[in-house]
Structure formats: structure tokens, C-alpha cells
Amino acid sequence: xxxxxxxxxxxxxxxxxxxxxxxxxxxxxxxxxxxxxxxxxxxxxxxxxxxxxxxxxxxxxxxxxxxxxxxxxxxxxxx
Length: 79
Known about the structure:
By secondary structure, this protein is of the alpha+beta class. The protein is built from one helix and five strands, in the order βαββββ. It has a five-stranded antiparallel sheet with strand order 2-3-1-4-5. Strand 4 and strand 5 (70-76) form a beta hairpin. It is globular, with a radius of gyration of 11 Å.
């Protein structure tokens, strides 16, 4: 499955990318799509085949699963 993670800060996006790398998951930093909002403007795209709940992290603002170009919200942190 493909996922898109949004963050409160740019440093949070960088930390999460390093966190994924430590789990041998390639995370790619990209701008947030216009139809989604984000505080920092950076998103991390990645693929993961197991349960996404294993990848929750303190820096996450929102986590979306990408299905055929559509974004399905999986997780949203309380702001």
C-alpha cells in the first residue's frame, strides 16, 4: 500500500523520513498535494505492506492511504 504522511513542522517530516529509513522503508519527501492541507508543506510518501499503525510517530499530523489517486485518511493527531 502507498501512504502519504503530513506533519506539523518540516523538522518533523525529516525526523519521520529518518525513522522510516531505520525500519528499512524508503520515504520520499515531496510537497503536500494542493487538495490536502498541511502546516509545514512537506509530506513523506512511502510504501508499506503491514498494518500502518506500526508506523505511528509523535511528529505525524495526518496519515493517508493512497488508492487510485484518492487519499483516504487513516490517522489524524489532535491539534
